[in-house]
Structures are given as C-alpha cells and as structure tokens.
Design goal:
The complex is a heterodimer.
Chain A: H1 3-8, H2 16-22, E1 28-31, E2 37-38, E3 44-45, E4 48-55, E5 65-69, E6 95-96, E7 101-102, E8 107-111, E9 126-127, E10 132-133, H3 143-156, E11 162-168, H4 170-181, E12 186-192, H5 200-215, H6 232-246, H7 249-255, H8 275-290, H9 293-305, H10 316-319, E13 326-332, H11 340-352, E14 356-362, H12 376-393
Parallel strand pairs in A: 5-8, 5-11, 6-7, 11-12, 12-13, 13-14
Antiparallel strand pairs in A: 1-4, 2-3, 4-8, 9-10
Chain B: H1 10-18, E1 24-28, H2 34-43, E2 46-51, H3 54-62, E3 67-69, H4 72-75, E4 84-90, H5 99-109, E5 110-118, H6 123-132, H7 156-165, E6 169-176, H8 189-195, E7 198-204
Parallel strand pairs in B: 1-2, 1-4, 2-3, 4-5
Antiparallel strand pairs in B: 5-7, 6-7
Helix pairs in contact in B: 1-2
Classes of the chains: A alpha/beta, B alpha/beta.
Organism (chain B): Jiella avicenniae
Protein name (chain B): Methionine biosynthesis protein MetW
Amino acid sequence: MTPSADIDRTSATTSSGNREAIEPSSPVAYFGDDEPLHLDAGIDLSPLQIAYNTYGELNADRSNAILICHALTMDHFPASRSPVTGKPGWWLPLIGPGKPVDTDRYFVICSNVIGGCMGSTGPASIDPATGEPYGLTLPVITIRDMVRAQKMLVERLGIDTLFAVIGGSMGGMQVLQWTVSYPDKVFAALPIATGARHSAQNIAFHEIGRQAVIADPDWESGRYFAHGKRPVKGLAVARMTAHVTYLSEMALHRKFGRNLQDRDVLGFGFDADFQIESYLRHQGMTFVDRFDANSYLYLTRAMDYFDIAGDFDGSLAKAFQGSQTRFCLISFSSDWLFPTEENRAVVHALNAAAASVSFVEIDTDRGHDAFLLDEPEFFAAIDGFVSSAARARGLSR
Amino acid sequence: MAGTPAGIRVDLEVIAGLVEPNSRVLDVGSGDGALLALLQSRRHVDGRGIEISQAGVNECVARGLSVIQGDADRDLVHYPDDAFDYVILSQTIQATRNPKIVLTELLRIGRRAIVSFPNFGHWTIRYSLGLRGSMPVTRNLTHAWYETPNIHFCTIRDFVALAGELGATVETAIAINSTGQKMGMKMPWWFWNLFGEQAVFVLRR
C-alpha cells in the first residue's frame, strides 16, 4: 500500500472531528456578544463557545478546583473516553479517584482551547455572520487568549481562585501564562515539559508542518470545507514531522531500530520498508481523522508567538515578580523539543523573583512524549507537590 | 553530603536549634531533604532547597519539599540579595569548586549564613596524615582520596580566617566532638580545632 493510498482512505466530508467542533458532545459554556473575548490581535471575538469537562465535586469553599491545560493536539477529555477516537483519557494514569490528581479530593476542569477543533470556538466553528466555518477569517489566537477564555469559563463555574493549574507542553505554556496574567488566582502551578518561549528550532518545525498543510491543493486557501475537501496529505506530513520531535533518537532506536516492515529484504522502492516509516505513516493517517488542518495552523502559531519575557522588557524574572504561587517544574532528560535547559531558565527566573519553586528532571529515554506516559517518578513528583500544596491550602483529605 | 551516618545527623539537630521559627530558609545541598523536613516540622520555616543530585531532588519533591536541581557553584547567582533569613550550607562547602565565592553568595542572598563542615584539623586526621602518612578515611569522611567529592577541605582555623577575609562576623560557632556532644564555649580555638570533629558557624555580613 502506498502512503497516498493510506491517507486518501479518510473521507473528506464526514469527519467526526468536524462534527465535534460544531456540536460538541461535552458540556459547553456560551458567551454572547455582551461578553466578548478580547484577543491579543486587537479584536473582540463573540459569540464564544468553550467546550469542557469536569471530574469530581467542587467543595463548599470552591477552593479545590484544578485546571488541566491540554497540549497542541489533545482535547478536553484527559480522564474520559474521547468521543472522536474512542480512546481512554490522555492523562488517565494521572487523574482519577486515588490518583495523584485525586478526583475524590479535587474538582478537575479541562476545556478545549480557543482555536481548537473539539468544540471551543476555532477555525472549524461556524461564523454566525456568514453561516460558514471561520477558516482563516478567525483572528490569530495566542496562548494568552486561550488563558483569558479559560478564566471566563472558570468564573462562569463560580470559581474565583484555582487551587492548581497543571499542563504539559503547550499546556505548560498556558500554566505559565496563568501565573503571569492572573498571579493571585493560582495557588499552585505545575508547568511540565515546557518553556517560557518557543525556540527558533521549534518555530522551524512548526513552519515545516504549516507549509505541508498549505502546499496541499486540497487546503484550498483554508476554505476546504466549502469545497467538500480536507488537506489530509499535508496535515499527515505535518503530523509525521511533529511526531518525530516528540520522541527521542534512543526511543526510536529501541522501538524500531532499522527493522523492516512485513518483509525480509529491502524493497528497492519507496514503500514503507522500515518499521519507523510504517509507524509514522500510521501516525499521520490516524491524526487527520481527528484533527482540523486550520486548527493545526492556529495552534502552532499560538505556540510560536509565546514569549513571556518579551511581554516584560525581555526579563522573565520581572514577569514573576511578587508571585505567591508555588511552582513545580518537571522536565524529561531526553526531551529535545522542550529540553531541561528551557525549563531551568524558568526556574532561574522564579529564583530571581524569590518565588517558591521545585524543579525535577525525570530521567527517561522517551523524549517529549514522556509527560503523557506512565513514569512512576514523574507521578511521585506530582503527587508530592500537589499533596503538600493541598496541606498548605488547608484542603482536608 | 558525602559519608554521613544515617538518621538525623548531629549537625542537623544543631542547625535546627540555630534557626528562628517561621523564617525563610534556603538549604544549599539538601540531599534527601532531611534538614528541610526537620526545619519545617520543628521550626515551621518557609524552606527551599538546592540539590545537585537528581535522585535527591526527586525524593525531596515527592516528600512535598520545595527543592530544585542545581549546583552551589553555579546557581546561587540567580537569587536576589536578602531573599532569605538563613542560607544553610550543611556538609557541602568542602565539595564546592570555589568555597570563597559560594560563601560570598550565601552572605549576599541570606541575612545569615549557617555553614557546617567536617573539621580537617581533627586529631584523627592529623594522626592519619602526620604519623601514618596517608590521606584520612574516617567515619565522617568515608571516601578514598581518588573518589572523594570533597575537594576543598578546611580546618576550623582556616574557616575562621576565610570568614574574616570576607568581612563576615561570626555570630555563633559550635564544635561537635567525636561523641556528638557540643564542646564547651570556653575552650580555646586550638582545642576546638584539635578535638572538634565537626563545626557549625553562623555568619552575618
């Protein structure tokens, strides 16, 4: 089977991802024209829709809420089955009764980011002014915009101060932005495998992904829905490239080496001779089933624009000045997308601001994706940090 | 933190007795967090730590302590002046690359610096070097010379001289003898330097 045959088998018009974007199966918060979202792009976005899920019970003091911020291609189903893929929650090992983020103790909230494609307003949502999907008419969204929208949701749920905000990768960027935008509304912050800015190398990989989407003729200048098409080939290539950045050379070698796929000798052609090729094609193919191409453009852009120090005259320490939030940063030794040094730069800025900070580097060969995997030392760190923060917050067991 | 007996070390007990309750403390070289945990439970301090070994840091954070992975030689520069009431360097100064700069940083970051170290002037060490002619391996200094992390040993007399050179005031000095007892304050320095196995100093600018 050729790669194009693989990728073409996805139907262009009956994407379940698209349906979920317009009519989410999860709870939704609506904000009308009287409550617009003020975007960094200088535009007020309304109406606004935020899809979310909650786990556990809000206590009487409303002091036990934990916000989970999801990564680039994740969704607001960290601890429940995804309606699109049917897969269990992406952070199920971490969130649930008796787990480090204990839903018997905490009220856990997770919302789909603005610009996403799982029910919160994004390029695949219908623009009420035209009755058509926004496509590229949606203003560019930033991490700060996502956090502003989350703040609106949290207030709508009747919560003034979050006990904790937790997230990895792009989710970690949102965590950091929360502590900077709303320092007195976050008691404890857990930014994981992240940085206070997107590096040039990371922007470069995102640009390759975006250009792959844009180069696909089925992208149709972003108006693919109107043409009954979807740029599945371009998006699959974008995902294949990105996926490599989530792993590590060691993990790839351990998992695949130079092993051949369904054959004993080299094919002397351009089929997927190697297991790693087959694996990447599969990753690309399954991704296009669940994700919107324009959403991929918007969310990667949001990450590229992220630079907290840039908002504070180049001084990251200034961004955290006076912060009373307790921080715990966690990095992974083989993560080359958000290497330990990027996380440590945040730690040093927090030290300079005399903030309370813990910092753990988990030794693993599983690369950036380690934050989504079952790493006992990682969970022990989260458990220790969250439990001690709960004691300090007076949250009884 | 090389070669120290298990359980709460005597010098940690002594240090805990020197710290005012409810103060802000930075523990440089936190190890497994024994001192920070002791200070938090007994003195209710707002405690932070730096530890060079990742295993130590992970253990501290899992215990709910606020500790980062870092290096006394490299990472103290990131802290602002007067950020803490006490900066503690317990059994670590002899393992730093540049003890003079580290001590200067401690006195900049903290209003007071508490430093504990093994006294290289102790008679057992002098005996080993002076009479046996070999580098000492004792119950406090368990590593052979070729594998020890301790690269800058000093005696009590040497440490007092360095403090003087930096213009620091010795507020409190305590020597602990080989039975783990505090030695009498009235003893002369030479006596401490000969019979004190460990020393704990409180310095201020």
